[in-house]
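subagent[fold] <- orchestrator: predict structure for attached chain, return tokens only, no commentary.
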Amino acid sequence: MTMPPKAILFDCDGVLVDSEAISFDLLATDFARYGVVMTRPEMERRFLGGTIAGIFTGMRADGVALPDNWVETFYDQLYARLSEGTELIAGVTALLDKLDAAGIRYAVGSNGSDRKMQITLGQHPEILSRFNGHLYSGQALGCPKPAPGLWLHAARALGVAPEDCVVIDDSVSGCTGAARAGMRCLGLAEHHDGASLQQAGATVIHHLDEVAGQIGL
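subagent[fold] -> orchestrator:
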């Protein structure tokens, strides 16, 4: 029988809040201004789980003439759009209820900025408050995924050993970071088969309702 972990470490975008479609739609519109047409699957393959600064560097390397202030101006657009309404991923509240009932701690580890998490999760104060300040940004800490440092920092903040944590992430970079941190990972694949997440070392799930069974609750 699977023993429940002592902590669950959540990614934010695409795991707690349904923000990724908004981000990719905005990217597609913005790229078009510079003559770049990119499909949603291609953007997901290249950028899912990364950072806006990383996207800038990659596109510049591809010869796209993004202006020097592109990261700042894109964030301004993104924050404004997310502020208009960002829904929760289905099953978040029920899962947190089960974790609370079992005495399992939890935190967020995101490659997004602290401000972005406050904007998206801040629209759901009943959820935000339950994390009790345990929201950690790989950008702010200088260790974005796939480096393991973000997950290790979150575990230390909760006072839980890495081997007693389970990560839930929807990106290859997040799942890879979990593996490098010595943590079990559930790869959330709501809209695809999850093969890339499995290759990164995750156990694939397709809905947050599956988490309880996977962790022995």
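orchestrator: received. Logging for downstream: DSSP finds twelve helices and six strands in the chain. The chain has a mean pLDDT of 94.
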